[in-house]
Structure formats: structure tokens, C-alpha cells
Amino acid sequence: MLFTGAGILTGASGRAEPVHGLAMHGSPALPADFDHLPYADPKAPDGGSITYGVVGTFDSLNPFVLKGMRTTARGLWDPQFGNLVFESLMMRSADEPFTLYGLLAKSIEMDADRTFMQFNLDSRARWSDGKPVTADDVIFSFELLRDHGRPPFSNRLKKVEKMEKVGDNSVRFTFTKDADREFPLLLAMSPILPKHLIDPKTFEQSGLAPMIGSGPYVIDTVKPGEKIVYKRNPDYWGKNIPAMRGLANYDRVTVNYYLQDQTLFEAFKKGDVDLYADGSPTHWRDSYNFPAVRNGEIVREEFKPKLPSGMFGFVFNTRRPLFQDQRVREALTLAFDFEWVDRNLFGEVYDRTESFWQNSDLSSYGRPASPQELALIGDMKKAMEPAFIDGSYKLPVTDGSGRDRKVLRHAVDLLKAAGYTIRNGSMVDVHGRQLAFEIMTQNPDQEKIALAYQRFLTALGVDAAVRTVDDSSYQQRSQSFDYDVILKSFPSSLSPGIEQVGRWGSQSRDIKGTDSFAGVADPGIDRILNAIVSARGQEDFVTAVRALDRVLMSRYYVVPLYHIAQQWVAHRKNLMHPPVTPLYGYSLPTWWDGTAQAQ
To answer: Does 252 score more than 50 pLDDT?
Structure first.
């Protein structure tokens, strides 16, 4: 019998047969005998080098403990540069919404209801010291991270009823009743660590001592807070498995650290960094008139992923009493004059963001709520403006003056309804205290937007201070929720799942290190989140995501800012990449050094 929804074959005996991949919804796009990922070039040459640059610092080489969460050397376990040192049981394809293919695990076995999953390890898998990756390593890793790791790794066994070794090379997880359909995929993407090299007693204190993994690189050089250099493991076990063919092509990968983005860009201009991913349209337009660009040493490229907009905006910390009133959050949202900002700061290049999943079928923007969606939203719809229900809601379009009277009047009315009044030009509560808070920013670009917002809020009599802090302070304060308002980006995929629980679920609100930046704790939202991760069919899944989008937008937890559809990358002309841009945009692990072809 073929269960196409799970991509699992089950024989007459009821025993699950091994398969090569697993999709969250539907079946994997690639067949069992696929040769390589469609966005990788299996003929890419090995050799050469690349130097990346990042803003920040690091004081740990362990990315799996709370200490190292924000200050770990990049590259060891890295969604952008690739997992150079540590690997997971399966690897995610960047060209499908949410599909995994075998990595350390050559195959998996699973029933159609996803009540269990068995990982069958590739017998060729080796740690970089040459010892085999075993089932005991898998069990050890999950237990180690449960007891000593940071979220989300520390939570991975909460929905596992039993974890057992099957034969010499397999591990079977039997799930609890509250495990959702996404959960097996999260297990498959968890890091696997070497039992023979790690002492659980000192794991949380591990600092700058190099760690051993099974990945294509080993750590070569470490300069604390400044640089980390990786060199190719010539004996890497997985170079020719399908999911890795055409990836990890450099002999040497260097990651340099800089205190500010401007310093990083200057280093790129001088040739100390090989690649610069630019997120600012004005910077992309105005900042590349220097010799290396003019003489062709630097190439500028534009990539177009097929992704939803995501959300970038000011986030209200509802742990603060000030922001627990939805009317206050709505008034402060209305006060942001996007038209003024886009015209005066960015040259009218941005689109206003109106949804967490804008430009995709998952968005509620411009769509009336279906009966199924309304049933899922339940009593929360009583507190929602009708425009959110019928799909007609839009953020206000101002006259671009920064003081649009009509919009500000609406904001004032909302604040008055929340108990505030204007006295001597200040918006004050019943005790005469001015409505005041601090906006924490991380860099000059964020500060520029925050200062504009400060100007708009002044027109309401609101005292908004702007404070820009260094990267270390920003990360420490953001992961401990020590702020009033913060600028954050919420990337959106076509397969949202458990990461939404980390952002909006009640269970995440009081756990340091999660992405619960708004501090939301609402049983109704929890119910929608559960529907997302439990959905079996595409229709139910889309309904649940639209419901979450509609509710989040109607609650005004975030002041939506803007988005742009392109990805911009400037790089040295020797860096090459495949012609295919995957669903999620350019994929740095598939790039290579073109000079290696002549070596």
C-alpha cells in the first residue's frame, strides 16, 4: 500500500519499508535514485577558498548551549554558510517547501500516521577522526542536548515516548500522542555529536576548544572574537552522497568578524572579504562606485527567490504593562508613516508589508476568512475589526508628511479609549505619566528608521527614546527580553511549523533564548499553532496559516515595515555558482572558487 502523503511504503506485514526522503506535505520531489540536488552542480571543482565577513564576535565554539547561542563562531552549524563541522541525520532541500533527504541516515522507516520514525545510518558515515558514526552517538546526542543543550535542542525529546537502538546501525523513536506531524522532521534535522569525545559534565562550559564533527571541514585556526578558519577534511565520508554532491567545494573557509556593518563593507572593498550580502536598496544603489567594481574585480548579482515576504518591524514587548493593551499597540502602529520613510530614506523602492506571508497562498491579506478559518479562529473574531474578517484591511496610506492629521486623529482616539489624554502636548495616563518607552536598535540603519519613528510619535505626545547598543549587548538583551521595543525580522517559509510556536506560543514566552520577542501568551493562538503543525492535508494547512496570519495582524504585536523581493550579493569575480536559483534563494554552500578549475 502506498501512502503518498507521507512518502512511505508499507508492506503487507505492516512494517514500514525504508525510504530516502520525507516531505512535510505530499511526497519528496526527487526520486530515490537522484544524483544531486537540482540547484547544485556535481561538476563543481574542489579547491580554492572563500572568506566571509559577519558582524559581531564570538566566545564559544559550541553552538548548542545557551552560552554560545548568539556568540558562537559562525560556520560550525550554520544555515547560511552550511554546516561545516556538524551534521544532522537528514538534510533540508532549499528547492522544496519542507523536504528532507538522507545525510547521516541513509534511509528512514515510518508509518503513515507518523507515530514512529526509524533512522538507518549510512555505514560509511565517519567522524573527522575516522571513527564511525553509530546508533549510540545518536542516542547520546539527544540525551546530551536534552540535559545540557539550549532551546530548541533541549526540547526535542519531550514528545518522544521511547528511543531505542535497533540492530547495530539504527535508532527508532516512538512518539507521544501530542507529537505533531512536523516533529519527526525536526528530529531528523537535529545535530549528531560524537559520544567518544564529549564529557556531558563539561559540555555547557565548553569554550574555544575545537570540537570534532562529521562534516566536510575541521577547525584549523581560531582567533577569539576575530576569525575562525576551516580546512577541508580530505577524508570526508559524505562527499559523494547525493545530498552533498556539488556542495562544500572550497579547500578553505574563513569567517572574519567585524564590530559594525560599515567596517565589514570597507573590508569587502579592500579585498579582505570575498562576498557581501546587501540588504539595503539605497546602499545597493549608491555604494558601489569604487575601483574593484569599475574594473570588474567585484560582480554584483540579483537573485529572486520564490518566498513569502516575511515580516520586518518594530516589536512590542507585551511583557511590559504598557503594551498589553491592544488599543495602544494599534495606535502606535498607525503612527508609523511608511510613505514618509520610503520617500525620504529609501527613494521609494520598498513595498509595505501587510502580512507575515505576503505574496503567497498562505497570506490572509486581501482574502476573506473562509468558514473553516473562522471556526479555527473561534471567539477571537469577536475582538477583530470586520476588515480583518472580510479581507479588506489595509494599513493606512498617509500623505507622506510625517504628520497626516487623519491618521494621527485615529491614533489619538485609540489612546483616549485606552485611558490616555493629551496634556500640555504630552500623551499622559490618568496619573499624569507620559506614555514613554525605549526603542533598542543594533546598527545605524535600524537607528535611522527608529529616529524617524520617534519623530512621528512625538506628534502624538509620545516620548520614544532610541538607544543603539553594541552587538553583544543587543544579543544578550534580546534573548533575555530586556527591552520595550525592538526591531526584528521574522522570515517566512512556505512550510511554517514549530518555529511559529517559538515566536508566538505561550510555552515560549518565559524561556530565554527563544524567538518570543513579543511575549505572546494566548490559548486561541496556541490552538491555531497546534492546527498548523498537526495538519495532514494542504487545505487544512493553508487554512491554519492564514488564520494565524489574520490574528497576528489584527493584534498589532508588530509595526509592519517593508520588504523587497530581490536578494542582492556582491562578490569577487572568482566566485562561481550554479545557474539555478532554488526556491529559498541563492545557496552559498553550492558556490565554488573558479580559480580552482585551473589548479
So the answer is: yes
DSSP assigned state of 19: B
| Euclidean distance between CA atoms 120 and 172, whole angstroms | 9
Instruction: Name the phi and psi angles at 586, rounded to 5.
Output: -55, 145
Residues, the chain: 599
Strand 252-258 relative to strand 275-278, pairing: unpaired
List 440's β-bridge partners, or say none.
467, 486
- If you average pLDDT over residues 390-410, what whole number do you get? 96
pLDDT band at 5 (very low <50, low <70, confident <90, very high): very low
Distance CA 274, CA 302 (A): 16
Cβ 340 vs Cβ 561: under 8 Å: no
CB–CB of 273/52 below 8 Å? Answer: yes
Distance of CA 94 to the CA centre of its chain: 13
Section 432-457 average pLDDT: 95
Residue 325 contacts residue 523 (beta carbons within 8 Å): no
Q: Angle at Cα 582 formed by Cα 124 and Cα 216, nearest 5°? A: 30
pTM assigned to the model: 0.76
Q: Distance between CA atoms of 587 and 244, rounded to whole angstroms?
A: 13
For 305, 316, 377, 417, 420, the CA distances from 319, given in Å and listed in that order, are 35, 9, 23, 21, 20
Structure confidence by residue, pLDDT tens digits, 91-137? 999 999 999 999 999 999 999 889 999 999 999 999 999 999 999 99
| SS3 category, 283 | helix
